[in-house]
Design brief:
Blueprint (H helix, E strand, L loop, with lengths): L2 H26 L6 H6 L12 E3 L15 E2 L5 E2 L3 E3 L8 H9 L3 E4 L5 H12 L18 H11 L4 E4 L8 E5 L1 H4 L9 H4 L1 E2 L6 E2 L4 H11 L3 E6 L3 E7 H6 L18 E4 L5 H11 L3 E4 L7 H13 L4 E7 L2 H9 L4 E4 L9 H5 L5 H14 L4 E4 L5 H9 L4 E4 L14 E2 L5 E6 L4 H5 L20 E5 L4 H19 L4 H10 L4 E3 L2 H6 L16
Length: about 525
């Protein structure tokens, strides 16, 4: 061989060696395991929860505020905040649904209500206008000041419209405020005697724009502006205090056509629930969630098919499921989304009582993988107690996280606050499988409507005051953005592509590693979630 040929051969060998060394180096630099290895490896016979896993960090090439959280609730409903409030009677009614939609998520109004009441709650969300109080608390003229004092202490505000019936939609007679009642010694006096009468009030006609209402309040130097329709019927109220703190909500979940907020509602699988679906559709409901602890039933299959035939524009989220076979059966019926989770909520005892369910991380990964083939998003329902858990749910393929206990205790949840013996401000929170909730009708969710003995699959409890959703949701979303930045994913599409390609790496955590990953080694500490 010539000297030149030997040189080429040597150079080729050197290139091959460098390529080999680089491959070996790259191989040595891969830490952790892919999700497929963790959940479906040949040696794996365990189910894993969120706390069993940790996501390994990736490379950061963008700022935390560059992270976008756009995802999907169902086939046709996008979300800019991948958080959904659970259809529980201590979590979601119209106030919560409005707040969730304004913040970019969506609320699901619970089904423990008469059909007409649930439809009315949906209508409140659909008719909501930012800055207008569509359901102000009204009082009748026959109420005494003493009774008003009790109402004020319970609700925490001091100004009320006075209407003929004491309800919205009735003729406006006047307005009663703190100034009218403070210096009246006889608290048995009726409001009709001390209220500011209608003729002295500044009002606006129904249809006024928020900007014009704001200008009218400022020019009149009044605190409240009643909005009236024909016949002096009160239809809404604008308060100066609300306008001062009123803000735009650029992430709001809205109908692209009429700009109304989007809302979902829960239903059961009884024949009577078909009438409920019709009433919800007439009220403008955008999606229904079929509320069942075990969704793979003939009853739910029939309900999904019926809704898709009778209300083709209504999005249908089916469930709950935890296995691929359960999921496939509902997807084949036409479901637009799946709710994943069984027996893992903080107040749920289904796994304990019924010995049936699945660890949530395993359920989310396996069901999401199948649903992706149908282009259907899933909701990771339950087991969420921190922003980190939501990051893990999204990292395992979920479209959004459905939260109950995480949102319980906020101002927008149903129910009243009360104080514990040690002075903590609390709200009641209960599972829909608790005896208390089942007595109100949620036993249908557990196929127990006709049961002589009701077997509880949940408990009732209390949670601490968390403040307003409008302060709490931004804390959660900021946590999600930080988590995704650490992973190296600028959006959820990239995050789930990393999952699919095996580039998103995980490790299982020992009990000691889980302890190490939380607060430890302190005599005492105060957990402050965010600085408002």
């Amino acid at each position: 061989m010539s000297q030149q040929g030997q040189g080429y051969s040597q150079a080729s060998e050197n290139d091959e060696k460098k390529l080999h060394d680089k491959k070996m180096m790259d191989l040595d630099l891969v830490d952790g395991f892919s999700a497929e290895d963790v959940f479906n490896g040949k040696q794996n016979q365990s189910g894993f929860t969120y706390d069993d896993l940790i996501c390994l960090p990736g490379h950061i090439s963008f700022g935390v505020h560059d992270v976008t959280l756009t995802s999907r609730f169902s086939r046709k409903i996008p979300l800019k905040t991948p958080i959904v409030s659970s259809p529980m009677d201590t979590v979601t009614e119209s106030s919560m649904a409005i707040a969730m939609a304004l913040e970019g998520g969506i609320g699901v109004i619970h089904t423990n209500l008469p059909v007409e009441v649930q439809a009315k709650e949906v209508m409140k969300v659909k008719k909501y206008k930012n800055g207008f109080i569509s359901d102000p608390v009204c009082v009748p003229p026959t109420m005494s000041i003493a009774e008003l004092d009790q109402l004020k202490s319970k609700l925490g505000f001091t100004g009320f419209p006075v209407t003929e019936s004491g309800e919205i939609g009735s003729k406006l007679l006047g307005l009663v405020t703190k100034r009218d009642t403070d210096f009246v010694k006889d608290r048995s006096v009726k409001l009709a005697e001390i209220m500011t009468p209608r003729k002295n009030l500044v009002t606006a006609e129904d249809g006024i724009e928020l900007k014009a209402a704001n200008e009218l309040l400022q020019s009149s130097k009044k605190g409240k502006l009643p909005i009236v329709a024909k016949g002096d019927v009160l239809v809404s109220l604008v308060a100066r205090t609300d306008l001062k703190k009123n803000a735009d909500f650029p992430n709001a979940t809205k109908d692209p056509k009429n700009k109304s907020l989007l809302v979902a509602a829960a239903i059961g699988t009884r024949p009577a629930d078909r009438d409920r679906v019709k009433a919800l559709a007439e009220a403008g409901c955008d999606a229904v969630i079929i509320d069942s602890s075990q969704g793979d039933s003939v009853f739910q299959h029939e309900m999904v098919k019926w809704i898709k035939k009778e209300c083709p524009d209504m999005q249908v989220v089916a469930g709950n499921v935890v296995t691929k076979r359960q999921a496939k059966n509902l997807l084949d019926c036409g479901a637009d989304g799946l709710r994943v989770g069984m027996g893992i909520g903080s107040i749920c005892t289904t796994q304990e009582v019924c010995a049936c369910g699945r660890a949530q991380a395993s359920a989310v990964y396996n069901v999401a993988k199948l649903a992706a083939a149908y282009d259907v998003p899933i909701l990771a329902d339950g087991g969420i107690s921190s922003p980190g858990h939501i990051v893990k749910a999204l990292a395992l393929g979920a479209g959004a996280a459905m939260c109950g206990s995480l949102l319980a205790g906020t101002h927008e949840t149903p129910g009243e606050y009360f104080y514990s013996n040690d002075g903590q401000r609390l709200k009641r929170y209960r599972g829909m499988g608790s005896i208390d909730a089942m007595k109100k009708g949620s036993d249908d969710r557990y196929f127990g409507t006709a049961a002589v003995i009701k077997v509880a699959q949940g408990v009732s409890g209390t949670v601490q005051d968390k403040g307003s959703i409008h302060r709490y949701l931004p804390y959660l979303t900021q946590g999600l953005q930080h988590g995704m930045q650490d992973i190296g994913a600028q959006d959820i599409i990239k995050l789930q592509k990393m999952l699919k390609d095996g580039d998103l790496r995980f490790e299982l955590r020992s009990a000691a590693a889980q302890r190490e990953g939380g607060v430890h080694g302190l005599h005492s500490f105060e957990r402050k979630l965010f600085d408002a």
